[in-house]
Write a structure and sequence with these properties.
The structure is a homodimer of 361-residue chains. Chain A is α/β, with parallel strands linked by helices and 361 residues long. Chain A has 2 domains: 169 residues, Rossmann fold (3-Layer(aba) Sandwich), CATH 3.40.50.1970; 185 residues, Dehydroquinate synthase-like, alpha domain, CATH 1.20.1090.10.
Chain lengths: 361, 361
């Protein structure tokens, strides 16, 4: 059995640990210090519930445990579904000392975290991410939200969990497409802040695709370290934290265009990261060779390296204009000075942006 | 013209000023330091809009200003109405530097504050309370929320405004019943923490009912001072802040019973405060004379001093059991040791509580 890897997201009084290892869903002693009162609500979805819900509930026999099983998918990440969580909490009379557990991928984590932020003006919650994407990205850093028909993650809160428990055995049941989508976020950390990790990924991508448990645990730990470092510096995204959104302004536009229906988040941002790299290259920053390395790594993961052909540059620009990074009308993008060095800037050539967008048409 | 009274809610980096005075809705220089970017959304309701909206908008001619006019009433304080605010913000492409202004009573303030807390994970907002109740209570302290059919203020956030601007001229157009309901919260501060102010209120209640502007400004200032002192000690209601809820556990049960339809909030908590005083007396704490003084002051304001006759004690106990102050199953109440000294306690005699509830039947 693998050791339990532990690291800390350092946020003063809101600091919390991340545990990475095998069989952690059924580790009550690990959980107990982070449960506030006697009540627990496990929030999960139809895909995850048959696989892992009973394990988690069994481990919590000392508590009053309820669960809610939501439909699976980004299209359900909205205020209506959020309200179902509140309905359950109120019907079961959960009070201010209740603890919510998010058992699932990014959608479950984002909604459960936001429900915890709002229920009775804030209760405790624990992230138990079961997808690679959630383990390396969305469960860490306290961004919670639901979508609005006019934009992704437009309604939410910065609200930190009590701890993150990433059980790597859950990756064994993960759909292959989901695994690859998660690798997009892993590769992101190499691109924005960790040249050495990017090279390691180039050397070890086959091991990851074959789900080698040691390689996966290492990639998760290294990704979380990178994310925790950035989040500790800038919890509420006043500045540097925005680099974690490499590819996301393009990617969110793609997702909104598709009404969150077609591509997975990881797929949309893979295409988005390539577009950001291409614009960065046209700006004279990242080298052509490094753009090729980036495309190659995504291609090895069967991830898209361009936007859907049906999406016009006009549509892109409209959807990008409501991005949260638009400050008083000027679009800011995360671009690459080189592999391992991202910058947030509004100072790019609009014509070059259009050139990149036109390549997709 | 009256002077502008200014006081501060002291919360470290989240500290903010409260301005109290005449004609402040049209004081752009007072506002400007608290507006974040170039965009402003004024949120108001059908009652207030014809009276004051144009004044506020005129004062903001230097900005891109939009407004949204919501239906008036506590029954609209829900997720659906909240979503209308998000619709407007997104349709008008408001970004993360937008500033929301809550122009109205407690319902508008609570919803606008919560919308500001959630929109793009948090934007600035300013409270411009136009009712006495909002000026002395709900606009100060950062409690924001919407109701759920199963309970009042169940979905919300602690989120502080940039400033509070209480224009006392708005009280001239305030409906008489609303003024009296606001006085219930003013009297509350005397009861929980300020014996001297309670005596002042006994001496000056007629002046307040006649809307004497100096008396009103003094009562608002003194109420805000009391509230600010308590909030500064305990922003997130871990302890002492709960005393601000004197009468509210009873009062919220009454409001939920009536589906927020019949009595005003101030009326429900007036009855609730009398019930709390009666229970406190049965516990051997507050004297019979002080219960009589309390009832007399409310009666002079034409406020109810008992719950609706149709509300059974069983119904009361059921509705009180979902109160936010229920900690792991035990109901906590705010009771009075004496006038000017409130305590939060779960240590009361349940039989005496039932005795008080039965009096209403």
């Amino acid at each position: 059995m693998e050791k339990i890897r532990e690291l800390t997201v350092d946020l003063g009084e809101r600091s919390y640990p991340i545990f990475i290892g095998e069989g952690l869903l059924q580790a009550p002693r690990l959980l107990e210090p982070f449960i506030h009162g006697q009540q627990v609500l496990v929030v999960t979805n139809e895909t995850i519930a048959p696989l892992y819900l009973h394990n988690v509930i069994e481990g919590l026999s000392a508590y009053q445990v309820e669960s809610i099983i939501l439909p699976d998918g980004e299209i359900y990440k909205n205020l209506d579904t959020l309200n179902k969580i509140f309905d359950t909490l109120l019907t079961k009379k959960h009070n201010r000392t209740t603890t919510l557990i998010a058992l699932g991928g990014g959608v479950i984590g984002d909604m459960t975290g936001f429900a915890a932020a709002c229920y009775q003006r804030g209760v405790h919650f624990i992230q138990m991410p079961t997808t690679l994407l959630a383990q390396v990205d969305s469960s860490v850093g306290g961004k919670t939200a639901v979508n609005h028909p006019m934009g992704k993650n437009m309604i939410g809160a910065f609200y930190q969990p009590q701890c993150v428990i990433a059980d790597t055995t859950t990756l064994r049941t993960l759909d292959d497409r989901q695994l690859r989508a998660g690798l997009a976020e892993v590769i992101k950390y190499g691109l924005i802040a960790d040249t050495e990790f990017f090279s390691w990924l180039e050397d070890n991508i086959q091991l990851l695709l074959e789900r080698d448990s040691t390689a996966l645990a290492y990639a998760i730990e290294r990704s979380c370290e990178n994310k925790a470092r950035v989040v500790s510096k800038d919890e509420r995204e006043g500045g540097i934290r925005a680099i974690l959104n490499l590819g996301h302004t393009f990617g969110h536009a793609i997702e909104t265009f598709q009404s969150y229906g077609d591509w997975l988040h990881g797929e949309a941002i893979a295409a988005g990261m390539v577009m950001a790299a291409e614009l960065s290259h046209l700006m004279g920053w990242v080298s052509e060779e490094d753009v090729c390395r980036t495309k190659k790594l995504f291609t090895l993961c069967d991830l898209p390296i361009a936007a859907p052909k049906t999406m016009s540059s006009e549509k892109f620009l409209t959807l990008m204009s409501v991005d949260k990074k638009v400050l008083d009308g000027s679009l800011r993008l995360v671009l690459l000075k080189s592999i391992g060095c991202a910058v947030v800037t509004a100072d790019f050539d609009q014509n070059l942006l259009v050139k990149v967008l036109l390549r997709s048409e």
